[in-house]
Sequence to fold (498 residues):
Amino acid sequence: MTNTIHHFIGGQHVESTSDRRSDVFNPATGEVQARVGLASIAEVDTAVASARAALEGWKNSSLATRTRVLFAFRELVNQHKDDIARLLTLEHGKVFSDAQGEVQRGLEVIEFACGLSQLLKGEMSENVSTDVDSYSMRQPVGVVAGITPFNFPAMVPMWMYPIAIACGNTFVLKPSERDPSVTVFCAELFAKAGLPPGVLNVVHGDKVAVDRLLEHPDVAAISFVGSTPIARYIYETGTQHGKRVQALGGAKNHMVVLPDADMDLAADAAVGAGFGSAGERCMAISVLVTVGNAADKLLPKIQERIAVLQVGNGLDPASQMGPLINKAHRDRVAGYVDQAEKDGATILVDGRPLKVPGHEGGFFLGPCLLDHVTTSMSCYREEIFGPVLSVVRAATYDDALALIHGHPYGNGTAIFTNDGGAARKFQHDVQIGMVGVNVPIPVPLAYYSFGGWKQSLFGDLHMYGMDGVRFYTRNKVVIARWPEPRFRGVDLGFPQNK
Ligand code: NAD
Fold:
């Protein structure tokens, strides 16, 4: 019997009535372990109606009530960290320790949201005019929808709903249909923490569900994370329907290594950031830009490290890298290596023949290291989203910077050097949203905000941190006077401060 994954609407599991279903695989074995119903328009409408019905009560609940529910949720997620991580490994494939790290980073956003009473403070100015005061407040936008990718099924939704809900909104989450169980488990925990029914709803689905959310008149705002073509579509369609939209897209993150860098540190970083989570991270390093003679010192060290990497089932504690999400994606990633070889790249490490004993049906691809990659090759131009690290050799720092600036994506980047002046120049010059200095994956902490530039983000506000609070609230300004007799009398002039 294959397990069926249900929606979570109005605080209850709701079986999908749709006749459209999608398989959920265990990527380590290749077996179908569950099926998920893909919502019809009517099912999405039910989820939005549930969020709409819960809105009045939740947005009028006191900050103290909301804070207590958020703290209780934080405790439950912390207690169930390993349960969430196990579910995540089973459906996504990433190794268990990496899944634990993902849950921890999501938990940090919940912890940030626990400070909602501080975050939602407005401003106040006394006597802006004689006996007139002015103050501002942040109010929720209403029903918010979140649409999330497969690669961080716990953390990316947690970038959104804890802050949106802390701000007094209600939420409809449409997770990736490829690994949907984690979001339902977390929504159950939130309900156990005391969240009223309907404040957080999970509806599974594909384009049909997403399109309905984009046009639904009761959805006020959309937070999206996924690939760039879909992010652009979400931004354009959502804003055409009058919604506030933030849409984070794909990436092609360059790591620049200057000749003076600590090459052991840089090799550790390149292997960790290139092949961690099998390269299925939007902050993965996929291009290594070696400057001057850095490649000669660095590449042998990277090869040594790849040679001892353990690829296997993510639940095996010995595994350092798991499989890819499904067979189609695995084959697509391997196709980029095939094409790079035809285009003249040097395949320094070839992960294509890898077989994991006992897991012959799994969606595995070993780490691939490609040297002498040029900017015209598809492995350089496009986001691969797999364990493929392309090396581009640049003569100078300026050439390295020009490469980054010539690429359409602008999510993350890193520089490895021991020269403080060069690092400082890079962090100032580079046209990228998140920058690491001797840190390969510069994911901002929960109290900063996450977002790329260029085609890695559509919209103006980044995700979580104070940008999250700004996105999920509207600012209201009040100017108040408590009239005294001397102010009475009709005045048609424009209000002036006296
Ligand atoms: P995806 O764009 O295929 O899917 C993301 C979401 O959009 C899913 O919920 C999916 O069901 C939905 N969707 C897919 N096709 C759609 C369509 N035609 N119309 C409407 N909705 C559609 O992305 P993915 O493969 O799940 O995730 C990987 C991508 O996400 C990569 O490009 C990665 O870089 C990106 N990503 C970006 C960030 C970031 O913060 N910038 C973080 C994580 C992942």
About this structure: Residues 147-152, 156, 174, 176-177, 206-207, 210, 225-227, 230, 248-251, 282, 383, 385, 411, 452, 456 surround nicotinamide-adenine-dinucleotide (CB under 6 Å). The longest strand covers residues 132-140.
